């Protein structure tokens, strides 16, 4: 499954949670699903790997994609 130029999502269907987690950890995808697909949570980043996109949307990680930090040093003396 990792032998592709894309890596957006992957789903694993099994009753065994340990098996599902083992497989999902090995997948080079931005999102992994266990016994479901196409669910999106605003609390989790939505991102792809490899040719499936750059950066992330949703969640705090997604917001970081759209901002650049700036440091301001003020001397009021």
TrEMBL record:
SUPFAM superfamilies: ALDH-like. GO terms for molecular function: oxidoreductase activity, acting on the aldehyde or oxo group of donors, NAD or NADP as acceptor. It comes from the Eukaryota. Residues 1-71 form the Aldehyde dehydrogenase domain. This is Aldehyde dehydrogenase domain-containing protein.
